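Table S2 (text version). Query chain:
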Amino acid sequence: MASSYGYPFEQQHCLSISQFSRPDIETLLTLGNHYLDLDVQKSKERSMLAGKTLVNLFFENSTRTEKSFEIAGRRLGADVINMSVVGSSVKKGETLLDTAATLNAMNPDILVVRHGASGAPALLAQKVSGSVINAGDGVHEHPTQALLDALTLRRHFGEDLGGLRIAICGDIKHSRVARSDIQLLNVLGCDIRLIGPPTLIPADADKWGVDVFHDMETGLEGCDVVMMLRLQMERMSGAFVPSKREYFHFYGLDRSKLGFAKQGAMVMHPGPMNRGVEISSDVADDPKVSLITSQVESGVAMRMGILHALSDARDGVA
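Corresponding structure-token output:
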């Protein structure tokens, strides 16, 4: 099951979308789709990770991602340990490498890491014997979110996403989700647009294989999907936006702005949402236009697929 189209999945970590080939991505999405079936997902006979230990090591808060991995691991039969960093030795001055040495002595099979510093999961992957999954590092990447977003899109639009026009709107500058989504959706043949104020668009964004717009009306024209991003005030030093109210006026998604997109366009948001800042509640909660609940549902399934593939690769299963 860890091979798709006759292609063996051999990656032992999930650190960045850039490490995966198109066949790797197809394999992961096929596995994610397999686990969308709740009967398969909740099967008592499922023991893919039986006898293996999964450690969630989150240096930043994230209820959604952490619990998603916890449920995914347990449903595959793993022993799951959630390590609280708040009261740990890390808060007392222990370095990341000290933590890696301590964890390695415990022999975890899979380490799921979220860290505020870009590159921290990749550094841990060099120091521990198990597989490392990047659950978000700084403003660098969030590969499992991108994979679940792609799985969500396939559930709605079908397997071939080629030519789908997707607008990613808002705080691109501080978004690791945007960076991973752009890489993955480009591989899958999507037409990507970035929309946001100049202060929240990275200076090198024009080299990412995207089109950049600074107003919603022009940017959303002809778009099949509108993916909104959270305004990450905690990562901002200085005034990137005049006020939340003014930001919503120009860049928050409401019915009026959604009308600029293609008829039947769908809305996404990786969460957590700032309602009334980047998206209005009536748009976010409308099942006729919103895929946000579907994204959450896809999260456990996609992460089960990722855990399955990495476990098989480490065990040498073709």
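Notes on Table S2: The longest strand covers residues 131-137. The mean pLDDT is 91.
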